[in-house]
Each structure stands twice: as structure tokens, then as C-alpha cells.
Amino acid sequence: MGIITIPMTDLSSNTALLRLMTWLSPAFPVGAFSYSHGVERAVHNGLIHDKASLQNWLNDLLHHGSIWNDAVLFAASWLDAREGKDYGHIAALGEAMAGSKERHMETMLQGSAFLQAIGHWGPDSSELAGEIPYPVAVAIIAARNGVGLEAGLAAFVHGVLSNLVQGAVRLIPLGQSHGVALMAAFEKPIIAAVQRAAISSLDDLGSAAIQSDIMAMQHETQYSRIFRS
């Protein structure tokens, strides 16, 4: 695994905000719209069937499951990148923690796609080649571009949840108004999770969202499906 070396950039707060919004927007070519993170299988099995069950499912992922782990990996990667440390061990740990074939594909392909697209912000895109998990990739780039830890982490977590809500709106189905209401309801939980993750360490990694992992595994052999994971 090669180490990505990106010069530290001193940006204005407005420029840093604009870059963060672009990198985590639905238009950024990481293919996030292709992944349901096992939600498709959970809908298929009837575990997610309305707004309330979707909110409970995502809340568990945010506080006790894969999204929480990604937030911890993000924070650790951001701190190491700002200090110029080798983050390779964090990337390897993040890859090893992918609990199924599809989840491994999801985080690694999005990480690679993110780093390829980031070449538009640097003179030498070849310097950004590599295969590292998505949260690690975003954290490193955010740190090197002057984006604050909590700001970058909040935007990342919001983007992940927003993508899953939009997928569920199609799958359940739900109205767009229900999707917007869910994102409004997640503001305080996102802030709370980000504040915890910002002062976390790799020792805080861990998941109790076993049912979500099982759904991700079952999705791999689902006969008819819309999403890649």
C-alpha cells in the first residue's frame, strides 16, 4: 500500500467549505448512489418497512455499527494526516473491518474513486493513486486541505446517512417529505456522534449492529436487487 503524500494547503474557510461540499455532494463520482449498505436486503426481509423502522436502523448504525466505526476511522486518519504520520495501519484496519464481500467492495471502490476524482484539485493525480477505505480517503484529503476535523466528519456522516435515506425512499417506498424529515431528525444525533468520534481512538472501534452485517451478507446472493450492496 503506497503512502499518499499531499502538501498541506492553507485555504480560506470559504474555500475549504466549498471543497467539502463538492467532495461529499451526490454529484461527486464515487458511485455512492449504487450502494444501500445492506438496507435493500433489510427492506426485502421486512425489517425496514416505514419511516420509524428506517430511523431506528440508521440510528443503530450511527451509534453502534458501521457508520460509527467509519467515524472513528475518519478521526484517526485526519489526526495522523495533519501530523504527517503514516496512516497505512489505519487503512489496513478499516479494510479488515469490512464484514462482508460487498461491504469491502463498497468502502474500497468508493475510496479509490474518491482519490481519482481528487486529482482535479492537484497538479499530479498519479500521486493520489491507491486503494484505501472511503472514510480514510476523505479524512486524509480533508486534513490536507485545511478542513476541520468536526466539520469534515459531520459532512461525511451526513453524506452517508443522506445516501442511505434516499435509497430507502426508493426501496420501501417513502415519500420525499419523509426522507427530508428523517434528515432533519438526524441533526442532533449526527452532532453527538461526531463529537464523540472527534475525541475517540482506535480502541473505540466496535459494532453491535449484527443484524445489519447479516443483511449485507445475505444481499450478496439476493436474486433480484437494485443496489450493489
Topology (SSEs and partners):
Elements: H1 13-23, H2 39-44, H3 51-64, H4 66-82, H5 88-96, H6 101-117, H7 134-144, H8 149-171, H9 176-185, H10 187-198, H11 210-219
Helix pairs in contact: 3-4, 4-7, 4-8, 4-10, 6-7, 7-8, 8-9, 8-10
Account of the protein in words:
This protein is mainly alpha-helical and 229 residues long. Helices cover 61% and strands 0% of the residues. It has eleven helices and no strands. It has helices at residues 13-23, 39-44, 51-64, 66-82, 88-96, 101-117, 134-144, 149-171, 176-185, 187-198, 210-219. α8 (149-171) packs across α10 (187-198). The longest helix is centred in the last third of the chain and has 23 residues, at 149-171.
Instruction: Look at the structure and give the mean pLDDT.
Output: 89
Instruction: Say how many strands there are.
Output: 0
Termini separation comes to 25 Å
What general outline do the C-alpha atoms trace? Answer: globular
Uncertain regions: pLDDT < 50 for 5+ in a row? 1-10, 123-128
Q: Note the main sheet.
A: none
Structural category: mainly alpha
| Helix content estimate | 55-70%
The helix-strand sequence is HHHHHHHHHHH
Oligomer: single chain
